[in-house]
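User: Structure with heme C, tokens only please.
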Amino acid sequence: MKFRLTLFTAVLAGMAGFGVAHAAGSASAGQSVYASQCALCHSNQPGGVGIGPSLADVYGKPAASQPNYDYSPAMKNAHLTWNDATLDKFLAAPQATVPGTKMPFAGLTDAGQRADVIAYLASIANK
Ligand code: HEC
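Assistant:
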């Protein structure tokens, strides 16, 4: 019984890891983080409107490149491309990473939540 339980756990862990190229984060956990922390301001639909730009296709793209969104000069001049490292830094401390950004969000202090929400953003992006 103990063996079967261990095997079951291992299979589950394998399934969770399958297809997720982002070592640390879980896209499904990230979807919950997104729903509670980001969805208020950000659509996850391509072209979706909100207080902030749609995040449907930011992963892998340069900052301030979503169409039909009026970015701050700070974001336009940030010269960042959104990947695991830049998103982690920005989401930990938006104002410090892009001084003058108009994203009114204090930051996600939990590194695990950042990794999860980044995995979620990667999973919905049209690469
Ligand atoms: C209270 C509203 C608000 C919340 C909450 C918020 N954001 Fe934002 N976000 C914005 C605004 C406004 C901008 C545009 C910033 C600018 O132009 O300086 C932005 C910009 C961004 C960008 C840059 C997009 C691009 O195209 O360059 C990313 C990435 C981002 N937010 C991710 C997140 C994530 C992930 C969360 C949740 C953890 C989150 N935001 C929570 C309002 C918000």
